[in-house]
């Protein structure tokens, strides 16, 4: 296993671009928000300084209002579309790197706690100032989420673009996205299908709608109030809300170590609001948590991995715990590797197409974490072991076919390497 651990570390080194890591060469040539948060935890298993640096480079792109963009364009590249010219966000954050105009799941706070805990076990006192700086950046981000993406005080934060969810072409978005126009002013010059088979990527019509949404928000000059009013796609996302809630709990933990009493009180209020919102999204008949389409007012019942992500934030009752265990086992039945990103019995399931079926190591990492939090250690160990085995068999691929275990998407993928390092680290320290 030491050889594979060395290989995982080598991938992070290969994808290092000077203190920040690209997800993989060519296909994703910039710094992505939640990718870097996961990657920083991978680095923390063997290099604390480099782990901190990953987050420090990410906040170089933080907007003045607190938003952490989903892409930071540190250096130019022509191997990805849409690039900074399509986003045209320059006027929103002077004297900072060019960025996209939307965000991604706020794993940042979770990563900061993970890194700081390891630093403490190593007796590192020199990281206090770095932790404090990153804590305040995370706090500004969480304030942004609550103000800008839950203005109606539901206790659920909304996404205005499928890319923000991280689960770009998930079946969960199909109905809401179908209402978005396919007409664009921007010429769509996809680069992804030059690197990866089109059978593994979102359809062209999806991209037309993705770019149409970018154009709508660009015309709002990226003003969040105008975007909220103009958004043709608006979903209160349980996956996003759960990650924000969990990250908030982790920031409370950090604040207690930094003796930041006012911040503890502020974050505790946010945490309580988010947990209340999440609890209301449980559905007994589906044995999971569902997002809410804020335009139609309907539950989004498509069975995707988002059903289970709230476990990282919420303590389930006995009935819910048993129901979730049964449901996850049903999804994994007959699969070489679970948990599929879409239930295999769903009519939307495609085992090789991006977020419509394949297994993602970082999603399994979150699910394992949530299962452990909810005293379902045996199921967690099975999923953890299957994930490690899939990576050892197929390599550090972007995602995996749950039916065959085949590696799919980009190769030498940073967050898959990071997931392996963290899962192995946890196993070795049990």
From TrEMBL:
Q: Which UniProt keywords apply?
A: Glycosidase, Hydrolase
Matching Pfam families: MGH1-like_GH
**Family matches, as InterPro entries:** 6-hairpin_glycosidase_sf, 6hp_glycosidase-like_sf, Glycoside_hydrolase_63, MGH1-like_GH
Please give the superkingdom of this protein's source: Eukaryota
Hey, which family's this protein in? Belongs to the glycosyl hydrolase 63 family.
Please give the name of this protein. Mannosylglycerate hydrolase MGH1-like glycoside hydrolase domain-containing protein
UniProt-recorded Gene Ontology molecular function terms? Glc3Man9GlcNAc2 oligosaccharide glucosidase activity
Has keyword Hydrolase? yes
Q: Which GO terms describe its biological process?
A: oligosaccharide metabolic process; protein N-linked glycosylation
Provide GO CC annotations from the record: endoplasmic reticulum membrane
Q: Tell me where in this chain the Mannosylglycerate hydrolase MGH1-like glycoside hydrolase domain is found.
A: 28-416
Source species, please?
A: Rotaria sordida
Q: Does the record bear Hydrolase in its keywords?
A: yes
């Amino acid at each position: 296993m030491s050889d594979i651990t060395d290989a995982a570390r080598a991938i992070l080194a290969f994808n290092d671009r000077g203190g920040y890591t690209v997800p993989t060469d060519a296909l994703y040539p910039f710094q992505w928000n939640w990718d870097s948060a996961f990657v920083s935890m991978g680095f923390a298993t063997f290099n604390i300084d480099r782990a901190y640096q990953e987050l420090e480079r990410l906040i170089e792109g933080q907007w003045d209002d607190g938003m952490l963009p989903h892409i930071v364009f540190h250096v130019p590249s022509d191997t990805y579309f849409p690039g900074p010219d399509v986003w045209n966000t320059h006027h929103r954050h002077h004297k900072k790197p060019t960025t996209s105009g939307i965000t991604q799941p706020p794993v940042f706070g979770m990563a900061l706690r993970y890194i700081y805990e390891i630093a403490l076990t190593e007796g590192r006192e020199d990281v206090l100032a770095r932790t404090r700086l990153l804590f305040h950046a995370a706090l500004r981000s969480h304030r942004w989420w609550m103000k800008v993406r839950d203005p109606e005080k539901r206790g659920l934060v909304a996404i205005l673009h499928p890319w923000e969810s991280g689960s770009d072409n998930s079946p969960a978005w199909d109905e809401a996205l179908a209402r978005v126009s396919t007409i664009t002013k921007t010429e769509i010059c996809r680069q992804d299908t030059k690197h990866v088979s089109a059978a593994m990527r979102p359809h062209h019509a999806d991209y037309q709608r993705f770019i149409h949404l970018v154009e709508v928000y660009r015309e709002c000059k990226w003003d969040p109030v105008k975007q909220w009013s103009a958004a043709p796609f608006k979903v209160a996302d349980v996956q996003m809300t759960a990650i924000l809630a969990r990250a908030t709990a982790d920031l409370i933990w950090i604040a207690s170590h930094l003796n930041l009493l006012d911040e503890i009180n502020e974050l505790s209020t946010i945490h309580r609001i988010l947990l209340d919102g999440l609890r209301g999204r449980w559905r007994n008949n589906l044995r999971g948590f569902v997002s809410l389409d804020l335009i139609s007012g309907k539950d989004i019942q498509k069975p995707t991995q988002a059903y289970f992500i709230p476990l990282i934030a919420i303590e389930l009752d006995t009935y819910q715990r048993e129901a979730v265990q049964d449901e996850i086992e049903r999804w994994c039945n007959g699969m070489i590797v679970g948990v599929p990103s879409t239930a295999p019995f769903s009519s939307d399931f495609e085992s090789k197409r991006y977020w419509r079926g394949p297994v993602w190591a970082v999603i399994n990492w979150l699910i394992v974490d949530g299962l452990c939090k909810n005293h379902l250690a045996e199921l967690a160990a099975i999923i953890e072991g299957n994930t490690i085995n899939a990576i050892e068999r197929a390599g550090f691929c972007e995602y995996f076919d749950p039916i065959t275990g085949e590696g799919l998407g980009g190769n030498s993928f940073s967050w898959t390497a990071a997931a392996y390092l963290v899962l192995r680290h946890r196993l070795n320290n049990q």
